[in-house]
Design brief:
Blueprint lengths: L3 E9 L5 H9 L17 E7 L2 E7 L9 H16 L2 E7 L6 H11 L6 E7 L6 H14 L5 E3 L8 H11 L17 H16 L8 E10 L5 E9 L2 H8 L4 H18 L3 E9 L7 H6 L9
Parallel strand pairs: 1-3, 1-4, 4-5, 5-6, 8-9
Antiparallel strand pairs: 2-3, 7-8
Helix pairs in contact: 6-8
Length: 301
């Protein structure tokens, strides 16, 4: 049997649907998905099997104009993921077309080493008419020599099968890089922290979510098969702590319940989740926070 395996980097603007596509390809929730932009920080890898091919998806942070150290580290991680991958897939939202951000990404693609396989996936195709799609496809292919163009809806699954089949044939001949039943190379502690952070992001609609982080401080396997998970939510100000806790602790309790339910479904067993909130004013400037998120602190300079 000839096996194939390779890394596929999904790049695009924030909210283009990269995380949704990763989860659709893998068939499990390995990447945080919210309506808020810039929710993917670390390069989460999802592993999908397609015939005799193993596709390892590098779900990069959205590419945007960086302002803060964390932003700069995220953008550096995104381009680093693209440069290291066997195949790059650029996701563009059909209804938004060629934005200033997409223009910047096209310029960045031109700077990559020659011979790199780059495919175009126009996402959210259900939001526009076919003539708009065709025009967008022509315009984008005029600006960059894409190996192939796909019309997809990551959310609904349209066109995803064709994209996955094409990727499976394009990755190099190679032994599989991960065990067949493994869906992500992130430690479970980090996946658990991401799930809680997603619930925080969904619940708190202010700017606050970009100024908090979640860490799994303790993971204890119990004799009855359940797991006790202790997590710390770090915020930058006392006022933020109050927002996360909510009146009489109701907000953090609701977040904990939602995160626990999802963790139980993901792990297939009972979970005892305990959340605490702590003020840590300078967590955005602490090198260890970046390494825990899979980012390089130096890239933020």
């Amino acid at each position: 049997m000839t096996t194939r395996a390779g890394f596929v980097a999904l790049i695009g603007e924030p909210n283009a649907g990269k995380s949704t596509l990763t989860n659709r390809m893998v068939g499990a929730k390995v990447s945080i998905v919210t309506h808020k932009v810039q929710t993917t920080r670390a390069r989460i890898r999802g592993v999908a099997m397609e015939g005799d091919s193993q596709l390892v998806f590098v779900d990069t942070p959205g590419l945007f104009k960086p302002r803060r150290r964390l932003d700069r580290a995220m953008v550096a991680a995104a381009w680093g993921g693209a440069a290291d991958a066997d195949i790059i897939v650029l996701l563009v939202e059909a209804h938004r077309g060629i934005t200033e951000g997409v223009e910047r990404i096209l310029e960045g693609l031109a700077d990559l080493p020659k011979g790199r396989t780059v495919a175009l996936a126009i996402n959210k195709i259900d939001r526009v008419e076919s003539k708009v799609l065709l025009k967008l496809t022509e315009d984008l292919n005029e600006r960059y020599a894409f190996a192939k163009t796909f019309m997809i809806s990551a959310e609904k699954g349209h066109g995803v099968k064709d994209l996955r089949a094409w990727l499976a044939g394009e990755v190099p001949e190679s032994p599989w890089l991960y065990p067949e039943d493994q869906i992500a190379d992130l430690p479970m502690r980090m996946i658990a922290a991401e799930m809680t952070r997603e619930k925080l992001t969904l619940r708190l609609h202010q700017e606050l979510p970009y100024q908090l982080t979640v860490e799994t401080e303790n993971w204890e396997e119990r004799e009855d098969g359940s797991a006790r998970i202790d997590q710390m939510i770090y915020v930058m100000r006392d006022g933020h702590k109050g927002i996360v806790l909510g009146r009489k602790g109701e907000t953090v309790k609701a977040i904990g319940q939602a995160a626990r339910a999802e963790l139980e479904e993901f792990l297939g067993r009972k979970v005892h989740l305990f959340l605490q909130v702590k003020v840590r004013e300078n967590w955005l400037e602490e090198a260890e926070r970046y390494s825990e998120m899979g980012l390089d602190f130096k890239d933020g300079n």
